[in-house]
Amino acid sequence: MLVLYDGRQIYFGRCGDAKVYFINLGFECPDRQTTADFLTSMTSHLERVVQPGFEGKVPRTPDEFAQAWKNSPERAALTKELEDYNQQYAVGGEHLQNFKDSRRVQQSKHQRVESPYTLSYAGQVKLCLRRGFWRLKGDPSLTLTQLFGNFIMALIISSIFYNLQPNTDSFFSRSALLFFAILLNAFGSALEVRTIN
């Protein structure tokens, strides 16, 4: 969770600890207010509620909030945790080589080693085609319905094209017909989204 106030970092860490951090600073979380709303209210002087007795002690400006975060034990613990992680998993260390080796095992044999993808482009196309054929074999009704609908619409649209003048007077009609033909097929793909029975 990262909380910014006018471009200044006033908290960074686990979501569960954020609310406690601001309550410990002296702010109050009203009843039935969600943690997200409480954290958002910290960035607005009109929304934040100060606990009784903390009126002169809580930060008010973005700079004061940022300074309070920099001096907090929560930030010191976070910095220590990040340093420990960076020492354990150093950039370019043995863990990087282990990751590269496991990545290479997962990649197909025809894929470049430097590629971020597991499958090559040809492998992805082959997989999508196979999935499409399985889907067609499993339920051909959608494809047959689209073919029948396209055939009927082709007859209707071509009949409108049939008597158009071969000059610029019919330019608007031709463009509208082409748009309609493309739009019909584009919306046809929405039929693939079906409700699960």
Write a concise keyword list for the protein shown above.
197 residues, 58% helix
Q: Briefly, what is this?
A:
This protein is mainly α and 197 residues long. Helices cover 58% and strands 7% of the residues. A two-stranded antiparallel sheet has the order 1-2. A two-stranded antiparallel ribbon has the order 3-4.
Fold and architecture overview:
This protein is mostly helical and 197 residues long. Among the domains are: 2-84, no CATH class; 139-192. Helix content is 58%, strand content 7%. It is built from eight helices and four strands, in the order E-E-H-E-H-E-H-H-H-H-H-H. The chain has helices spanning 15-25, 35-41, 62-70, 73-88, 94-106, 121-138, 141-162, 171-188; strands at 2-5, 8-12, 27-28, 49-50. The strands form two sheets. Strands 1-2 form a two-stranded antiparallel sheet. The longest helix is centred in the C-terminal third of the chain and has 22 residues, at 141-162.
